[in-house]
Amino acid sequence: MRNTGTSASAAAVAATAGAATTGTVQEIALYELQRKIYPRAVTGWFAGWRVALVLATQLAFYGTLWLEWNGRQALLFDLVNRKFYIFGLVLWPQDFIYLTLLLIISALSLFLFTAMGGRLWCGYACPQTVYTEIFLWIERRVEGDRVARMRLDAAPLRVEKVLRKTLKHALWIALSLWTGFTFVGYFTPVQQLLGELASWSFGPWEWFWVLFYAFATYGNAGWMREQVCKYMCPYARFQSAMFDQDTMIITYDRSRGEPRGGRSRTLQAAEQGLGDCVDCGICVQVCPTGIDIRNGLQYECIGCAACIDGCNQVMQKMHYAPGLIRYSTQNAIRNSWTRAQILRRMLRPRTLIYSSLLLAVVLAGATALYVRVPLKLDVIRDRGAMARELADGQIENVYRLQIMNTRERNTRYVLSVSGLPGIALASPQEFEVAAASTVALPVRVRLPALPAGGASRPIHFELHALDDPAVAVREKSVFLLPR
User: Which of 33, 279, 459, 461 has the fewest CB atoms below 10 angstroms from its CB?
Assistant: First the structure.
């Protein structure tokens, strides 16, 4: 991949040589000033996909927290009570393995999609891309498209300019604050949060996260934009490790487009000794990172395909075939492959390995969730009371049972103990645990006779729900004997 930015070292050498020739002293800037990028609006097939994914992701983000399930918020990460509610599923800290599986699935999906189609995540679903699109939409409605925004920024400070800039930033800030409120609403029940907002009584952590997330949204999508993708996001740096010669990327067909140049529509390009590229620069104007895709694959390219839509519009006006800039692979461009040949190369060792690993992890996670018992039992011996012999000759041990009911309804359970002849509970065997809660239950276990040999014997506690025998767990422990 190539970086098309100005080379500071080359400029320094040239300036030094010029200074030596003329005998004058020159001041050299070692770093190129950051130029502002004014992406031009574009329509087309890929622009339509971006709009659809922006709507889908934001509808899910802003709308899901208002859904209810079993009388509570459908999606809630209750960190205070250490419970994660995901529709009908309640996860506890002991279920951390599912978060691990989710992260592994996300990583493998990213590897697979990148190996097959390049930076699809960056171009269509990354929050940075999505919110930059939303902020750009607001900016265009307030200040106009590319040329109008450039003229407004270059114009002197007047009332119209101040009003337009103020309105734009006010809309940006309002959207950012609502985004921060929505983010916090996934960790604090949104109805409670809404009441606190009405009475202006947020807690310190709620204030911090609302303002922090709002500031991050406003700064990243409104001001930094492409700089986040180019300098802050690590994905741009290691994407080349996941690319190969058969990865679908946005490419410029140099053999068809060169030599580029302006021409008359009345004559064919070949008659004028030119390729199909009219050198209009629209592919650069619509690019959100400001690169020229005609210079080859660059790490700044986020794969949004805006240049494809822009170029196809020009090709249509010139009555040329579309696809001068298109999704293709380096092997396909080099060997002039057909679409069928490109698709066949999708099933290569790298993608097959990624697909197999992803499928295995998804199946393992789905199976684990399917067979997951909504009941957990931990047995802890009472360290303050060792084995003791009662007046009637029985031996007693005391335990503390930590019982976790992950169902969202009150459930009655039956407890039993096994493992030694005549062993029995001296505590109530039937009890109720409230919905999605944990109880600590002291239990006394007695043995009528003293077994021969050994200072301890293994036993098992068994717990099952009265309304569903399939909801049952079995936990191992030991029964201590007097020495």
Answer: 33
Tokens 């005998």 belong to which residue? 23
218 pLDDT higher than 90: yes
Count CB neighbours of 250 within 10 A: 23
| CB-based contact 278:259 (threshold 8 Å) | no
pTM reported for the whole predicted model? 0.84
In this structure, what token pair is assigned to residue 259? 């030599």
Answer yes or no: is 281 within a domain: yes
In-domain check, residue 227: no
- Let me know if residue 164 belongs to a domain: no
Average pLDDT estimate for 214-235: 93
Distance CA 320, CA 301 (A): 25
CB-facing half-sphere around the CA of 241: CA atoms within 13 A: 7
Bigger pLDDT: 62 or 234?
62
Which pLDDT does position 22 carry in this prediction? Answer: 53
437 sits in which H/E element: strand 437-447
Query: How much of the chain is helix, strand and coil, in % rounded to 5?
Result: 45, 20, 35
Residue 267: burial class (beta carbons within 10 Å; 0-12, 13-18, 19+): exposed
Digit-coded pLDDT (tens) for 346-375: 889 999 999 999 999 999 999 999 989 999
Domain boundary residue, one of 311, 337, 363: 337
Q: Name the least confident of 29-33, 136-140, 166-170.
A: 29-33
Assess whether pLDDT exceeds 90 at residue 238.
no
H or E segment at 349? helix 349-371
Q: Please, are residues 182 and 156 in contact by the beta-carbon 8 Å criterion? A: no
- How many secondary structure helices (H) and strands (E) does the chain include? 17, 16
Average pLDDT of span 326-342: 92
Q: Tell whether 314 and 393 lie within a shared domain.
A: no
- Preceding amide of 322 cis, omega within 30: no
Give the structural domain span for 383: 375-480
Q: Calculate Rg over the CA atoms of the chain.
A: 33
Domain boundary among 337, 360, 394: 337
Return the amino acid letter for 399. Y
Measure the CA–CA gap between 182 and 194, rounded to whole angstroms: 10
Buried b (16+ CB within 10 A) or exposed e, 327-348: bbbbebbeeebeeeebeebeee
